[in-house]
Amino acid sequence: MWNALKQPDGAALFDELKDLGFEGIALSRHLTLEQVEQLKLVLRDIGQIPPCAIQNFCPILHGTLQSEAENDKILLSSLDNDERQEAIRRTVQTMELAVEMEITTVVIRLGEVDTYDRSYLMTDLYEYGEREFEAFNKKVAEATEWRKRKETKHHDAVLRSLDELNERALKMELCIAIENRPRYYQIPNFDEVGLFFDEFYGSPMRYWHNVGHAALQEKLGLCWAHEWLEIYNEHLIGVTLHDLQGLEAYHPPGSGDLDWDELFTQIPSDIMKVIEIRHGETEAVIQARELCESLMMTQDEE
Question: What is the pLDDT of residues 52-69, one digit of tens each?
Fold first, then answer.
């Protein structure tokens, strides 16, 4: 994410990250086909360890601008069966790329509930400093109630999609990891993670925890960030690390509002950790890596 838009050459993109001290990478949905092909060549030529994870959809969907890669164009939760099947097909393509590049984990975004986005009900009050007042809780309840009215059909669509993808993952000897999302209307919310694991217990499906997404949901009154890690620990395979400045995500760890000493006491030491940054100059990225490495060393000592 950090340099995919700034550096069109995949080999140079990798060299840039390696020069900052990173020994491994994850492949984001911001990468073009050309960047992926260039990365494949350079990783093979230098005998680099395979990327630790890859996001669906990677490479970026045809016709999608890199700057718009965060906006899902096709959804595994879609009630339109043709769209849902296309989302499955493109996810399988990402899984096939993972096998080719010896990547073991595909991080999957499940989609969203088709409801009018009422995030402003919470964000406006938060920005005005009214997070602790009763009016804020009422707005949270109002937004989530609208979601509940439509979520059942989308649950069914996601279950059908996951049924196919888990079957494919088993044959490919891959893990597919469902990721928590930042917005209240996106899937899965806190309870839905449990619902999906109850349905597919024993499958190749795992949980991927995004620290910034959980913290953002907590700021907006939707959940407690630490509970995702506590409740879904047995399914956890990896975490994404980035900081928040107010409600703005993807800042380098240590440059925002989150308590990283406390966070690393909650994260198991033996799982994948990926720093995902959009904002920040080179020095801030190096400092973020050094912070996380020092906290990991502290984990190992304990």
Answer: 999 999 999 988 888 888
How many other CB atoms are there within 10 angstroms of residue 216's CB atom? 21
Could you tell me the CATH number of the domain that includes residue 168? Answer: 3.20.20.150
Looking at the DSSP bridge assignments, the partners of residue 209 are: 239
Domain tally for the chain?
Answer: 2
Q: pLDDT tens digits for 157-212?
A: 999 999 999 999 999 999 999 999 999 999 999 999 999 999 999 999 999 999 99
Return the residue matching tokens 């994948």. Answer: 272
Give the domain-ending residue among 127, 149, 171.
149
Task: Give whole-number Cα distances, 95 to 55, 84, 98, 121, 172, in Å.
Answer: 9, 16, 5, 38, 8
**For residue 200, which amino acid is it?**
F
CA distances from 44 to 100, 157, 176, 221, 222 (A): 11, 38, 24, 46, 44
Take residue 225 and report the two structure tokens written for it. Answer: 């960030």
Per the CB < 8 A criterion, the answer to whether 288 and 255 are in contact is yes
d(CA 267, CA 91): 28
26 near 53, Cβ under 8 Å? Answer: yes
Structural domain harbouring 129: 116-149
The rounded distance, in Å, linking the Cα atoms of 140 and 75 is 25
Query: What 3-state DSSP class applies to 105?
Result: strand
Same domain flag for 92 and 159? yes
| List of residues 6+ apart from 233 with CB closer than 8 A | 268
Residues 6+ apart with CB under 8 A from 67: 5
To the question of pTM greater than 0.85 for the whole model, the response is yes
